[in-house]
């Protein structure tokens, strides 16, 4: 389905990003892996994509809080592998606090990685997509790009902004075969969410299982985690020719999180 296409997936060394990278590779896309982690584990991920799916895969490190490095990531992908046909902005960080207690440096860091980096990679990738008259931008927002919760001011501001940025890109490129869509997951059992569960368990004197049930029960009516594999299949559809008329949308995959 995606044979000959090249996909850059930020934050793809674990969690949602890795699930999306594997789904795209399974459908024939060459993959640029990006993220943090143990170098041996990252090499195993990269090599696994090649051996499991018969595609080419490269790893490129970038500090996405730095605009120059975000742009350089796209440029290096072009030289090390191929022009970027599919850009998946997935990398993200989190910090929780009341607004009046929120450290400004944490606000800046969350906005930089969760929103500004997406702008910079899009800015770098779009001219090539426009020249080739084909491209797919998939921004991994969140259910919190559509609704709010307390203590997550920076994350929610960034994810709401990312949904808006996605719509602007869709409008600006609507006359070409370039689409821009957002995926808005609910709770996914990623390393980021596991840390939140552990913090809650410690703060409330709960077991990990009890904290998990409380987390899901409060906002996700299915009381089941969305999986990276499910999100990967949605990304495959949005990257396909079948989705050529699908642009400017924010797709909820959230176990009815935003239906309350």
Automatic annotation (TrEMBL):
GO terms for molecular function: 3-hydroxybutyrate dehydrogenase activity. InterPro entries: 3-OHbutyrate_DH, NAD(P)-bd_dom_sf, SDR, SDR_fam. This is 3-hydroxybutyrate dehydrogenase. Pfam families: adh_short. It comes from Rhodospira trueperi. Belongs to the short-chain dehydrogenases/reductases (SDR) family.
């Amino acid at each position: 389905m995606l044979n000959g296409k090249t996909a850059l997936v930020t934050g793809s060394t674990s969690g949602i990003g890795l699930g999306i990278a594997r789904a795209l590779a399974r459908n024939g896309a060459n993959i640029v892996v990006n993220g943090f982690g143990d170098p041996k584990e990252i090499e195993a991920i990269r090599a696994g994509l090649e051996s499991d799916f018969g595609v080419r895969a490269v790893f490129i490190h970038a500090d996405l809080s730095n605009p120059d490095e975000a742009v350089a990531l796209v440029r290096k992908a072009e030289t090390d592998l191929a022009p970027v046909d599919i850009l998946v902005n997935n990398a993200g960080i989190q910090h929780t606090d009341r607004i009046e207690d929120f450290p400004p440096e944490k606000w800046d860091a969350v906005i930089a990685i969760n929103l500004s980096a997406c702008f910079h990679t899009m800015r770098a990738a779009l001219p090539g997509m426009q020249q080739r008259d084909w491209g797919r931008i998939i921004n991994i927002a969140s259910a919190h790009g559509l609704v709010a919760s307390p203590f997550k001011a920076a994350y929610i501001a960034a994810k709401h902004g990312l949904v808006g940025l996605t719509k602007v890109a869709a409008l600006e490129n609507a006359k070409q075969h370039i689409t821009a869509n957002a995926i808005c997951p609910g709770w996914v059992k990623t390393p980021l969410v596991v840390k939140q569960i552990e913090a809650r368990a410690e703060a409330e004197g709960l077991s990990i299982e009890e904290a998990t049930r409380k987390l899901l029960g409060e906002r996700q009516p299915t009381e089941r985690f969305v999986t990276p594999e499910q999100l990967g299949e949605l990304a495959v559809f949005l990257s396909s020719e079948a989705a050529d008329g699908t642009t400017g949308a924010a797709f909820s995959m959230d176990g009815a999180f935003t239906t309350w």
